[in-house]
TrEMBL record:
GO annotation, cellular component aspect: nucleolus; preribosome, large subunit precursor
Protein name: Brix domain-containing protein
Positions of region (Disordered): 1-20
GO MF annotations, alphabetized: rRNA binding
Subcellular compartments: Nucleus, Nucleolus
Domain Brix: 29-233
Biological processes per GO annotation: ribosomal large subunit assembly; rRNA processing
Organism: Mauremys mutica (yellowpond turtle)
Main location: nucleus
Source organism phylogeny: Eukaryota, Metazoa, Chordata, Craniata, Vertebrata
Length: 233
């Protein structure tokens, strides 16, 4: 009888934990990232890269067909809990980006002046730190130069903040945050910089050898007589 009771309690605990996880997942912002009209391969890759930035609360494998209208996306957005559309379009002269808040707006429209793909950034680095575990948690959003009093600046800041779950500084697990999204506004040029970074925790105030140990790197100890020298120096 004791085993059956324990098994039932475990099942109830798992069911309760699963329900809490589902409720938490449903309570945070979700997004669709897609394009409208004809776009080239480069822009299609940019859309996939933006989906990576928005993970895990975005439709990473969203399929877009020519016959799909915007109403089709709106129709499925409600049942799926989608709160934002990130839409790319291309004209003969410009690449445009629209950020749409569902269900009642507002909608912000931007002109994309230049962009770099993830593969281009990775190929330019000797060592890169991109791995799948980084995308199991949403990025840390950092807004720069959005303290101005203009109404459009405040609106942009609110839209960007609402794209991601809020962070409780007292409960957040810092080891879970592996990425940072920096959005910087230049009031003179009225341009936005949208930059995605990889983060890692680095120990401060420790010796070089101890830092390597904490970062799971085994230092060269051939010149040491005892491991205490590694920690002391």
């Amino acid at each position: 009888m004791g085993r059956e009771s324990k098994t039932k309690n475990q099942k109830r605990a798992r069911a309760a934990a699963q329900q809490r996880a589902q409720e938490q997942f449903a309570s945070v912002p979700h997004s669709f990232v897609f394009h409208r009209g004809r776009v080239g391969r480069s822009l299609q890759q940019l859309i996939l890269d933006v989906r990576r930035v928005m993970e895990p609360f975005t439709a990473s494998t969203l399929q877009v067909r020519k016959k799909n209208s915007l109403k089709d996306f709106v129709a499925v957005a409600g049942p799926l809990g989608v709160t934002h559309f990130l839409v790319f379009t291309k004209s003969p002269t410009n690449v445009n980006f629209k950020l749409v808040r569902l269900p009642g707006g507002p909608t912000l429209t931007f002109k994309v002046t230049q962009y770099s793909l993830i593969k281009d950034v990775v190929s330019s680095l000797k060592r890169h730190r991109m791995h799948e575990q980084q995308f199991t948690h949403h990025p840390l959003l950092v807004l720069n130069n959005f303290g101005l009093q203009q109404m459009h600046v405040k609106l942009m800041a609110t839209m960007f903040q609402n794209m991601f779950p809020s962070i409780n500084v007292h409960k957040v697990n810092l080891n879970a945050i592996k990425r940072c999204l920096l959005i910087s506004y230049n009031a003179d040029s009225q341009l936005l910089d949208f930059r995605h970074y990889s983060l890692r925790v680095v120990p401060v105030g420790a010796s070089k050898g101890l830092k390597k140990l904490l970062q799971e790197k085994f230092p060269n100890m051939s010149r040491l007589e005892d491991i205490s020298e590694l920690l002391a120096k």
